[in-house]
Amino acid sequence: MQSETDLGWCSEGTYVSYHGCLECTTGHFCPGNVSAPHKCPPGTFNFYTGRSSIGDCKPCSHGLISSEDRADCRPCPAGFSCHPGNSTLSACPKGQHSPEGVVLCLACPIGSVCPSGHPQKCDPGGEPDSERTGCVDCPPGFYSTPCTVRCVKCPSGPLPPL
C-alpha cells in the first residue's frame, strides 16, 4: 500500500517535497497537494506554521507594511512612503521626509533641509534653499547659528573689542 507521499499528495497545511510532506512555513499558506508554499499577499502576514488558507493571512494594522517574508508586519521605515495594501516602498523626494511609522512623505520641517528623506540642519553661516533640498550660504551682512531658522542681518555698528 502506498502512503500519501508516495502518491504525491499532502494534506492542507503541508506541501510536497522530496523529503515527504513538510509543514507550511510562516508567511505562507498551503491549500494541500501543492509543491511549494503560497506566499501571503502583500499587505498581509501570517506568523503561524501549517496554515492552509489565504484567509489565514491577516491584514497589517494601519501604518504597518508586511515584512518581506510575510511572517509579520513592520513600521514604514523613515525616509520612505509606504503603500500598506501592497507593501511597496518609495523613497521620499528631495524636500520631503517621513519619520518611521508614517506612511506618507511630509514637507521638510521649517529650518531644515531634506536632501534624502531625513531632515537635517544647515551648518552655521547657511540656511535652507526655498525648496528645502539643500543649504545656501548666508549673503554678505547676514549670519546664522545652529539656533536660527534662517540667516539674520548682522547688527550695525563697530564690532566690540576682543
Helix content: under 10%
What low-confidence regions span 5 or more consecutive residues with pLDDT below 50? 1-7
CATH topology (level 3) name of the domain at 1-71:
Tumor Necrosis Factor Receptor, subunit A, domain 2
- Structural class computed from helices and strand pairing: mainly beta
Radius of gyration: 27 Å
| Distance linking N and C termini | 101 Å
Query: Secondary-structure element order, as H and E?
Result: EEEEEEEEEEEEEEEE
Write out the CATH superfamily name of the domain at 1-71.
Tumor Necrosis Factor Receptor, subunit A, domain 2
Total number of beta strands: 16
Largest sheet: 2 strands, antiparallel
Strand content: 25-35%
What is the CATH first-level class name of the domain at 1-71?
Answer: Mainly Beta
Summed over residues and divided by their number, the pLDDT gives a mean of 89
Q: Can you tell me the overall shape?
A: rod-shaped
Strand order of the largest sheet: 1-2
Q: Helix segment count?
A: 0
Q: Can you name the CATH architecture of the domain at 1-71?
A: Ribbon
